[in-house]
Write a structure and sequence with these properties.
Elements: H1 5-30, H2 35-44, H3 47-78, H4 84-90, H5 99-109, H6 115-120, H7 129-140, H8 142-153, H9 157-165, H10 170-181, H11 183-199, H12 202-206, H13 212-221, H14 225-263, H15 276-304, H16 315-346, H17 350-364, H18 367-380, H19 389-413, H20 417-425, H21 430-441, H22 443-459, H23 462-467, H24 475-484, H25 488-517
Helix pairs in contact: 1-14, 1-16, 1-17, 1-18, 2-14, 3-4, 3-7, 3-8, 3-11, 5-7, 5-15, 8-11, 9-10, 11-14, 13-14, 15-25, 16-17, 16-19, 16-22, 17-19, 18-19, 19-22, 20-21, 22-25, 24-25
Length: about 525
């Protein structure tokens, strides 16, 4: 089906803005007048150890997430585990907890005045690589769990049954049949976890791990824009390599899921037998460590309160600021996603899919890098927009727009083009047929994508930290400041408010996905 020139033009608007970010990094790093000197300084100051440390942390978190997510996905999708649906919903909740809240809970729990520190008789130092691996794993494993759960649920059970009839044990049938079939979903989830770790700023900064995002922010704070741009360019190159691999596995995943959708039938759950109790304990331990422990630590500090911050903004003001930016970002992302998803779902040429691919690259660029690019844009191109909410919203939209297009595009692809063609034969224009027929049918997916953008914008720290107007704070930025200054009780109240704002859209998204699959 042909799309109008207006749709194609509107689809390229956000894509061109995304392309400006790496272009700015390249120009800023190479035209500063001392590019070669900067490169020499970076190498002498440890660029290679920085690369190895960042990639090493990403690999450690990904492998640990894999160990947790594979058995969880199989237990909740293919076995008679009690309350499987409830467990699936609860296991997605770590995505609603910002990484810096998880890091705050970890640091404050083992501090001298924390609940674990009091039990152990003193503080425990969990800052560094090990602490960051724990925090990011407990909050990042759902990136592997969610695609694996969907892949296991869509497998044809006759394949495992055939392997069992040929003498394979249940474990042997799982390892030799099921696991290879879900490999695209497995690899895709691992790559998404890697991108999550490479772009994380809050946890690594609080736990004092010198990865790219933390060092880039330090360079920006030291007014070394050229050095920050050079490091950002290296980080963007690394993330684009991971993104290219994710795109490749995504295509494989789509082909596998489409075949599974045609061949699969309702699978009776596999009985756990004597492994039932260990399976329940495993699920409960993961839930306790990833959701229960951070929440209990935050509640403990909130009740204890401790030193009171006299200069802090009221929580209702901070929540209103967070809601304002999140709602504006979600609405803008939903509007901009419609032409991008429509073009990608209806056109068949590579050129038509290019805006969707370019827009998706914005999700891979870390928030601190996007923020630096928009700060340069605001100070040099449009000074009137510098440190304003509209510019902050634009930066968040560029980062999180793929979360809407990724949910809306498949929904539009499932709608038969014949419905719009029928409307056009009745005299409706192409635009009117889309707005009156296809868009209402895909409205659930559009709202789910908007809820996901709302969730991630509420949690967003680096872009807000760098681009916020003077004297204007959100729950995330004040939580960051209070934690660094040791006001754990006050920080806990902000963390609780963030959790409440995040868990509601996360529940909506999970329930919407389950309804679409059923």
């Amino acid at each position: 089906m042909r799309t109008s020139p207006l749709t194609r033009a509107l689809a390229w608007v956000p894509a061109l803005v995304v392309l400006l970010v790496p272009l700015w990094l390249l120009l800023r790093a190479t035209t500063s007048g001392r590019a070669s000197a900067l490169l020499g300084e970076s190498l002498s100051l440890g660029l290679l150890p920085l690369i190895l440390r960042s990639i090493g942390l990403a690999l450690a978190v990904t492998l640990a997430s894999l160990v947790i997510a594979v058995p969880l996905a199989w237990l909740t999708a293919r076995t008679d585990l009690p309350f499987r649906r409830t467990c699936t919903i609860l296991l997605t909740l770590p995505l609603a907890i910002p990484s810096y809240v998880g890091a705050f809970a970890l640091i404050s729990a083992v501090s001298a005045d924390g609940p674990l520190g009091a039990l152990l008789g003193g503080s425990v130092d969990l800052q560094g690589f090990f602490g960051a691996t724990i925090a990011l794993t407990l909050l990042g494993f759902p990136y592997v769990f969610l695609p694996l759960h969907a892949a296991f649920a869509g497998l044809d059970p006759r394949l495992e049954e055939s392997a069992r009839m040929l003498g394979r044990s249940p474990l042997g049938a799982f390892l030799s049949v099921s696991l290879p079939l879900v490999r695209p979903a497995l690899v895709g989830g691992c790559l998404m976890t890697t991108l999550y770790v490479l772009s994380d700023f809050g946890a690594v900064s609080m736990l004092q791990v010198d990865t790219f995002t933390r060092v880039i922010y330090v360079q920006h704070d030291a007014f070394d824009a050229a050095g920050a741009a050079l490091l950002s360019l290296v980080l963007v190159l690394i993330t684009f390599v991971v993104l290219a691999l994710e795109w490749r596995t995504r295509n494989q995943r789509l082909r596998t899921s489409s075949r599974a959708g045609r061949d699969a039938r309702a699978a009776p759950p596999s009985p756990l037998g004597r492994w039932r109790l260990p399976a329940i304990v495993f699920v409960l331990v993961v839930l306790a460590a990833s959701v229960g422990a951070p929440l209990l630590v935050v509640i403990w500090w909130a009740l204890r309160r401790g030193n009171v911050c006299e200069f802090c903004a009221p929580i209702d003001t901070l929540a209103a600021n967070s809601l304002l930016v999140a709602l504006m970002t979600a609405l803008a992302a939903m509007l901009l996603a419609v032409p991008v998803a429509r073009l990608a779902s209806r056109a068949r040429s590579l050129w038509a899919h290019l805006p969707d691919r370019v827009v998706y690259a914005g999700f891979a660029i870390p928030g601190v890098v996007v923020a630096l690019a928009f700060v340069y844009f605001g100070t040099r191109v449009v000074p009137a927009l510098y440190q304003t909410i509209p510019l902050l919203v634009l930066a968040c939209v560029i980062r999180f727009l793929p979360q809407v297009t990724d949910t809306l595009r498949p929904a539009l692809e499932r709608i038969p083009p014949s419905l719009e063609e029928a409307a056009r034969t009745l005299g409706a224009s192409s635009r009117r047929a889309f707005l009156r027929v296809s868009l209402p049918l895909a409205m659930g997916a559009l709202l789910a994508g908007g809820a996901l953008v709302f969730l991630t914008t509420v949690k967003e720290l680096p872009a807000t930290l760098v681009m916020r107007p003077a004297g204007w704070d959100t729950l995330a930025t004040e939580l960051w400041d209070l934690t660094n200054e040791g006001y754990y009780g006050e920080a806990a109240l902000r963390a609780l408010a963030l959790f409440v704002l995040g868990v509601l859209p996360m529940l909506f998204i999970t329930l919407a996905r389950q309804r679409r699959r059923s």
